[in-house]
Amino acid sequence: MPVTENADQYSVWVGLIYIFNLIVGTGALTLPAAFARAGWGLSTISLVFLAFMSFMNATYVIETMACANAVYKWKRLQAIKRDSIQDHDSDDDATTSQQNYGDLEEPLVCGESIPSRYYSLDRRVELGEMADLFLNKIGRTMFYCTLCIYLYGDLSIYAAAVAKSVMDVVCSPISPNATDSNWDQMSCFNNSAAGTDPGAYTRLQCYRAALLTFAGIMGPFVFCNVQKTKYLQLFTSGMRWLAFAIMISLAIHLLIGVEPHAQPPAFDFTGLPTLFGACVYSFMCHHSLPALISPIRRKNHLGLHLSLDYGLISVFYLVLAFTGAFAFKHLNDLYTLNFVPSDNENIFLRIIEYFLTLFPVFTLSTSFPIIAITLRNNLQSLFLDTTRLESYNFILRKLLFPVVTVVPPLLLTYYLEDISKLIEFTGSYAGTGIQYLIPTFLVVFARRHCANLLGLGVVNIYKSPFSNIAWAIFVLLWSCMCIILVSVHMIEKIS
């Protein structure tokens, strides 16, 4: 069970590259606009602080995973001990049994100078399993609800981003004098208002047509079980880094040109809620960390290597956001939409513009089925007994949950195409739960559980450097404060 096979293992540096690619995804495309709204000074401080908070909770996930491994090993030893006692009735056999059990136990419980081998990261234990081990029924229900809400938000953001990207490729470019408030009423194939021509096809209609087409193509995958292949991951990863490199290069080219540049403010607190949601969404990796950490061969200094990874990601985000915020006077919620195809006569530049605009379509289309299947499985875990899944009728098993997975995000993005609002809600509420609250509650209850099970003298070498209970209290207070501030901001915008 689970110790990873040697053939599937990789070095810590390869693991950090995977974590880097996991974190630096489509969420990074929302940072430039958020930076421009909140101001470069406030944004820099907020991003660095939220990177630290994300790293802290990543160490909580690692510690909890080590605790789960210790619990499984302890249970295995107890099972071996019971089986040995039952299988051997004579005194000689019992003595031999006890000696064999001691041989198994000895490498696991060592002296004070050598950490216990109960704690390891060999077995992959997902967040759902951790919740089942360490949380009560209410805690498990809250975990699955939070995870499902986050995945619903993810699917909504993916669908809206793809549909908007397709719309901007199909429709004519928007006039520089146009405002965000009336883009949906514009004719798709010219810059005039559609209201003057009843037969005109509007940009909003094009957006909805692209959304329904995307759902029709990708939606059926939720009825199946599909997994990303290694080559598909390599392809999408290469596409992502090529796109980021081109966007940064083009922004730098604009900055060194003679045209006037944007001058975002240093501090604008009205843009803080959107920035908070974008940053939390951009540093999200905690729900997928176990799958990437367990195959790493040597995990001795995993925390140190992970901190270097977070530092590099923060620098990359700052470069992407700063170049975009100062190069463009107007920034779209999705950064790639600032590179929509124009009437440029340079064929090479037109190809680059089409590639950048369609970049979310390529990458998100490969991720959408995986997220949808993950959501479907978690919905089943929340409402059904997965140990007897086959005992339920066909409609419940094969039809109801796939439909419930795809339809709500489709309806939401059909009437709400504002990506910034989707990210603000997903990152600020569900993202706070997944990235801050769940890891904190898990690690607190895991420590208590293992202390009662193994004793206080058994050392966890993967213990978070932020193990003082004051850090956990700080995370909880910070999360509550952020949720309150974001809620107040949303209420003020509605009223």
Would you kindly provide a written description of the structure presented here, covering whatever features stand out?
With 495 residues, the chain is mainly α. The protein has one domain: Amino acid/polyamine transporter I. It has helices at residues 12-23, 31-38, 40-87, 91-105, 127-134, 137-170, 203-218, 230-255, 272-282, 289-293, 302-327, 347-383, 394-415, 419-454, 469-494. The longest helix is centred in the first third of the chain and has 48 residues, at 40-87.
Strand content: under 5%
What is the C-level CATH assignment? Mainly Alpha
Unreliable runs: 1-7, 94-115
Distance between the termini: 55 Å
- Class by SSE composition: mainly alpha
- Total domain count: 1
**CATH third-level topology:** Amino acid/polyamine transporter I
SS element count, helices: 15
Mean pLDDT: 79
Architecture in CATH?
Answer: Up-down Bundle
Work out the oligomeric state of the chains in this entry. Answer: single chain
Q: Shape from CA axes? A: globular
Q: How much helix is in the residues? A: 55-70%
Number of DSSP-assigned strands: 0
Family: Belongs to the TMEM104 family.
Pfam families: Aa_trans (PF01490)
Keywords: Glycoprotein, Membrane, Transmembrane, Transmembrane helix
GO cellular component, one term: membrane
